[in-house]
Write a structure and sequence with these properties.
Layout lengths: L15 H11 L15 H4 L21 H13 L1 E7 L2 E10 L3 E15 L2 H7 L4 H13 L2 E15 L10 E2 L6 E17 L6 H8 L10 E5 L2 H4 L15 E9 L26 E3 L2 E3 L14 H9 L3 H13 L7 H13 L3 H13 L7 H13 L3 H13 L7 H13 L3 H13 L7 H13 L3 H13 L7 H13 L3 H13 L7 H13 L3 H9 L9 H16 L3 H14 L1
Antiparallel strand pairs: 1-2, 1-6, 2-5, 3-4, 4-6, 6-7, 6-8, 9-10
Amino acid sequence: MRPMKTSSVVKGSGGAAAGAALVLSLTACPNGNIVRPEDPSYADAVGGQSTPVIEGHGEPLVVDWRPDHRGDLEVAMREGVAVVSYTKEGMRLLKGCHANGKYGFLGMTLKEQVISLEDENEIRANLPLSGVGIAGKLGGELRQGTVLNIAMALVGKHRTTNQEVPRDALEGRCDGATHFVSGATVGAFVLKTAARGEASTAAEVFSVGASAETSSAKNVMNKDGDIASCRKASPDEASPPDGCTALIRLELESIAPVAAKTHTPAGKTSWAPNPCPAGMVLSAGKCAVPSAQRPHQCDPGDVADCSAQCDRGQPESCVNLGFAHERGQGAPKDLPRASQLYAKACELGSALGCHNAGYLLNEGEGMTHDPAKAVGLFEKACLGGEARGCNSLGAALFVGSGIPQDPARAGKLFQRACSGGEPAGCTNLGTLLLTGTLGDRNPLLATSLFERACQGRDLSGCTSLASAFESGSGVQADLGRAANLYESSCESGYAYACYSLSVLATLGKGTAKDPSRARSLLERACQAKEVMACATLRVVHGQQVSVDPREVELYRATYEKTCNAGDPVDCTNLGILLSATG
């Protein structure tokens, strides 16, 4: 198993009476997912209108779903990774279809907001289950100034580490599958009609939703949860409080045609994708046609629009502009400018902006590093629901960078990161459990965490999972599977996996015995500064290569723990290291 280094602890490594019954009646069909009249088609039946389709990443609202359908989704998310069909006829849950994986929960600081859907296009785009029907029912009222308000209290997200689900990984009855559910925001909500321009806070809308006496209460179309319960939530809790568990918004990713043979290592910083259908932008919490009257989130790569929208105070546009400057993609590479833009995004409320700003302060090449300030930004990102922020804060605590060293608290933050869908958090927590850093060793739980990390394409996690299969640590030994995992991670650029594969190729275990290939893999890994590969070339092959004593010391500390616990692979690794420097 590769030790957890500061570079591998990933630091960065979504009529009143008729209206009230509308949500219940629109989805009352035997398959429980979407209105599908036999003849004519659903789109034809509502005047030829259809749901705008999102091909890739999407973040539709599900506040229009009936309670039993929402229950079906909750069950599907407990049984595996949920799968949906998203077409011009709407979105429906495929109850008999799933992919392997699981969801965790990451709490965040309470967010209260009201979103107003102002016309038929916005309703269809943001409510893809029954938006076409709702828009048809409210068409005349919408033209006379009625809007559809959604008050929300958000306390956290259910997330899976799965970054990709190929079609051949689907299990069950999956005809029509287009997307998998990568996450879901939870809390409480009220869906109601209102007059355009009617000022109201989330608390005011919730108070109407709680009353059955006022005339305004008759305009409530759907509701779930209690804002008072949500206000008791803590970001540190492992689950949302009772009364604040309603699914509100999904995060969707498209089903991949085939599994990728290699994976690009995850970047430490990231951008904010456009979650809307073509021709629409995210503005004021909803997908809408671009308007000069209100700022919107720019498309990544559209530097001119990102600059304009950032100037107007749209936080994720500042993130995307900062990313362009950080990577030199469509804009001059300028890390100080990127850092300024990320910091601005953070100040405007972007948790992703906080994390990116912290990462550059901690790691940015050519920048003045400020680990203590980075820690504050990572904590703000974590509290804002950005799982990478939790992982980066855990990394700082583990190594004592900008904050006193605290492995126990680091472990809790790695757990939060993993539960929030950050694969590197699973890898880091698994490493602490495997080495006994947090108490008694737990190889079984560690291996399950490495598997979750590998489902998220974390190369370190995949390599640690391969090591478990090689040694039989927490799992039945399987050298063939170990070799396949090592090879995939090696081809994706992870040097330690190349070293581990070279060992199997030398011995002919799990793969064909091939000394020439083994030597080539060692040299490849050593060129990438992997200390075990360089030590092996020096000790076994007599090749005069340098071995960094600081790296040796880091590896030695980990290998002594795992070797003493009975891991034969790491005992061999320890012997090679000591010989290389002895």
